[in-house]
Amino acid sequence: MATPVESRADGGRASVALRRRVTPDLRSLALAVIGSATLLAWASQSAFNQDLLLLTGAYALIALGMYVPFVMVGKLSLAYGAYAAMGGYSVGLVASRSSWPLIVAWVLGALVAATAATILGLATRRLSNWYLASVTILFAVAFESWLQENDGITGGAGGIAGIRDFELLGWTLTRDQSVYAAVALVLVVGLAIDRMRLSAWGVTARTVREEPLVVETSGVRVPTLVLLALAFGAAVASLGGALFTSSVGSITPDTFTVHLVFLALFMPLIGGVGTPWGATLGAALVVQLTLNSSSISSSGTLILSVGVILMLLLSPNGLLTMADRLRRVIGDLLVRRPTR
Amino acid sequence: MGEVQLWVSTVEVGCFFALLGLAFLLVWQGTGDFNFAIGPLAMIAALCASWLVVERDAALWPSLAAGVALVLVLSAVIELGVVRPISSRTTHHLPVVVAIAAVLFALMQGAGVVFGRSSLPGQQILTFDPVTVGDSVVLPSTILLVVTTLVAFVLVIGWVRLTPSGRLLRAVGNNPDAANVIGLPVSRVRVTAFLVAGMLAALAGLLYAPKSGVGFDRGLTWTIAGFLVVVVGGTGTIWAPLVAGLLLGMLEIFLPYYFSASTPDYVLLVLALGFFAFRPEGLFMKRVRA
């Protein structure tokens, strides 16, 4: 039987663990802010770096969009390239065919993507995970073909170019401001998803991944929860497409392809499943390795994929999880007092 | 192009899809995982053989054997070196899915680095004169692909239904935990599933390459094709991929001919939604006697 002292010690440890679980991950947020500041300093060196940072922001939003349904709920959708394209084409179409502010296009794109994800989720709501993966990849392929073929609406293979600058309440963002705004947007969305992960809804969603029947029998409508996660993820991914298109001023069917979603699968897990900030780290690594390594440009994807395999072999739950475990081990070693 | 020629192409493409689908299905039945590396494995067999013949002036048959051997080695490495260690270290299914996706890219890009990024012609294995059917021509490569596909399906069905190792495949796939508890050789069954699937993928790639050519970037397209076959056919019976492959081949050939290049993509999506709504088990389901 445990002594009162031992019980108190155990209780204290448990309460610390509980606090760790229910309070926002401020340390990760601080690291994300420091990382963002470093990236901003790096981007200020050239326009090319700024383009890469904007693409990193877009990929990070796609990865964050995947995080909620894929990592938290365990539902694999493969249409995130299509959802990002919806956000991008929404911006392109509103800019080229109306005088509406582009922010309207961002909202419209998110709504369209969320609606598409809901319909696809409804079609497979009572079926196992791979049906969702199947129908979403078919949708992504069909959507890409539709973008290629419909010249009258989407501009066909040439896409839509010459998109006007982003303007909000009469204020037009400069290039530098766009980069800052993109980073801020990623931080806000990352923080929101981190809070969501720790909320009651997030805890339920994560339990659905492990024990869907238990959650269902405790009165939660699991199909509805899954649909919400899928719709939310699609809307966030569409913001990635809208961000990239608004920044670059053009979009083509090749911008967000089916190919991207297989790369995007890596992003949430590279950084780590324990926090959405891992997804942003994964996005940054993907962009650096596939697009910003001139010496290894032709084999960047090879290095990335081999790196992902090695990382999963070493730490199946991602880099940040491995770093966190190391930190705790080192911390325990440092604070442990010698016992008699 | 005449109607008969369209049907010849349909059968050819359908058989290729069917072999890829069968490879997917075997891994699914034996391990419960989708091996998304099937497409790159088919590509690597064909690209390796073509590279040896075209770039290294090697003889045809040793080159074909090298392509198959390379794919078998890679299949074993995927299971023993990647999937198994990762699944043993985590209770989540996601890392395994991501690892297989990473293998897909690693194989494609690795093939590009080793064999070059240019497309190469597939190797003609049989060289007799084409057979004329009405106003259409059936090439030796088509005949070989069709015959091999039929033989492969007969052999695999016989293996799964009649042999102890084939029945083990289904037993382990249905419930790996229970199979472990009662002492079935789960590890051996999983490796066998990956190896047989790799063999089928290699055959598919080698025999279809004379029609399509082969390049390192074909891997993803072929993976999606094989996956779609399983989606349409379902996972109920071994011969479902043959019917689903031929059906998809028909869509792939006839719809672009009469409508537009994208029509198969739209029809597939509508078909899948219809299947999932009304017949989610696919065209064929396993019937269990009460």
UniProtKB/TrEMBL annotation, chain A:
PANTHER family: HIGH-AFFINITY BRANCHED-CHAIN AMINO ACID TRANSPORT SYSTEM PERMEASE (PTHR30482), HIGH-AFFINITY BRANCHED-CHAIN AMINO ACID TRANSPORT SYSTEM PERMEASE PROTEIN LIVM (PTHR30482:SF20). It is found in: Cell membrane. It is a multi-pass membrane protein. GO terms for cellular component: plasma membrane. The chain crosses the membrane at residues 26-43, 52-72, 78-95, 102-123, 129-147, 220-244, 256-279, 299-320. It holds the Pfam family BPD_transp_2. It comes from Iamia majanohamensis. This is Branched-chain amino acid ABC transporter permease. Keywords: Cell membrane, Membrane, Transmembrane, Transmembrane helix. InterPro entries: ABC_transp_permease, LivM-like. One of its GO terms (molecular function) is branched-chain amino acid transmembrane transporter activity.
TrEMBL record, chain B:
The keyword Transmembrane helix applies. It is a multi-pass membrane protein. It is found in: Cell membrane. GO terms for biological process: amino acid transport. The chain crosses the membrane at residues 6-27, 34-54, 60-82, 94-117, 137-160, 191-210, 222-248, 255-278. Its main location: membrane. GO terms for cellular component: plasma membrane. Keywords: Amino-acid transport, Cell membrane, Membrane, Transmembrane, Transmembrane helix, Transport. It comes from the Bacteria. GO terms for molecular function: transmembrane transporter activity. InterPro entries: ABC_transp_permease, BCAA_transport_permease. This is Branched-chain amino acid ABC transporter permease.
